[in-house]
Amino acid sequence: MVMDHEKQRARYVAGTEGAPPVPPPGGYRNARRQAGPVSQPQYGAPAPSATATATASASETKKPANALGWIALVVGILFAVVLLITLAVGATDTLYGVTMLALQLVVVAVIVGTLFTSRGRTFAAVALGITLIFNVATVGGIGALQTSASGSYDGMKSEEQKHEEAYPGIKGTDPQDALQQQSLEEVRAEADGLFAEIRERITAEYGYEWVQVGDEDLRPERNGYGGESMLVEYTSIGWATTEPIQDYSTKLDVMATIDSVVAEHGLPPLYSFNGEFSGIDPSMIAKLYGSEDPREQHTWEYYTDNYPDPMRLYANIYDLSNDPTGDFLKTREAQNARTGEPLEGLQMVVLASAVLSEGDQAEFEEKLKDYPGFQ
């Protein structure tokens, strides 16, 4: 038995000096099976190491980008810079010109063509991202919003339009009216004098004290041709009593006192918007002032002016005791938060539209020489 085993072993290894032994029939016990045929290296040839294989693979995958990839990236960046410079100088109309649109098509063509090259694809993708962010539509839209906010459309206007925009007067109004009526300084002086006398009389007769409301405001008037005129809308400093005026008879007396003062200054009698003889529809009076009956109204609004001069005087009395729902209180609280004015009491303000400062009269007349027939 032993002899048979030795003979069999001798048969396995005979003539194979220097080579590994042939595995027994069925293979070695617990040997791992290969998923596929494995080529055996030549005897005497060393197997390639893992380091050498990894180095070879890396050298095959890491190939430098070609010149086209660099060109696509540089072109994309330069195009974005050109758009931003155009936006910065305010040339919004240039962004939508044929030249800029054609340039964008060329840039896109270069980038898209580079995307189909294996070694330039990475840079082309970066260039494409830049172009998607900075393109004619996006930058042009930003420029349009900027132009709209500033009101500057000079690039799209004709010389005639620019000339009309600089008109110093107001369309539909005789410019000589601004020169013949009260100046800004005259309106301001008359308003101050009128307020001072009314305050003195009201305090002397009723004991009410006063507080200043807001500041003087000057706003340029539009000229009707897309620009601003040299005329301004004047809003005076306001004045308000520090105490409520809720008694109906007292309200009538206070307005009568103001009426006598304005008459002394040559102004017409006060006109009541909230009264039954105002000519306003009763339903509208109720909506605006809280009721058709002045005894139940939360607001009294009186007015006078010195037409044909521009000054207009408003005298209002606010009375929260006639506000059963509390809705008017919310309105007054909102106004108080904006201006700091008292919630209730008498308040006065003067307005004047399209007035010209004395210091601007000479320039106004000089500019009018360039606009014969305008009004």
Q: How many H/I helical runs?
A: 14
Question: How does the overall form come out from the CA principal axes?
Answer: elongated
On the 0-100 scale, what is the average pLDDT?
82
Distance between the termini: 135 Å
State the order of secondary-structure elements, H for helix, E for strand.
Answer: HHHHHHHHHHEEEEHEHEEHEH
Specify the helix fraction band.
40-55%
What is the strand tally? 8
How is the biggest beta sheet arranged? 8 strands, antiparallel
Q: Report the uncertain regions.
A: none
Compute the CA-based radius of gyration: 45 Å
Structural class: alpha+beta
Q: Beta fraction of the residues?
A: 5-15%
List the helices and strands and how they pair.
Layout: H1 2-13, H2 50-61, H3 67-88, H4 92-95, H5 98-115, H6 121-133, H7 136-150, H8 159-165, H9 175-180, H10 184-206, E1 210-213, E2 217-222, E3 228-235, E4 238-241, H11 248-264, E5 271-272, H12 282-289, E6 299-305, E7 311-318, H13 327-339, E8 345-355, H14 361-368
Antiparallel strand pairs: 1-4, 2-3, 3-8, 4-8, 5-6, 6-7, 7-8
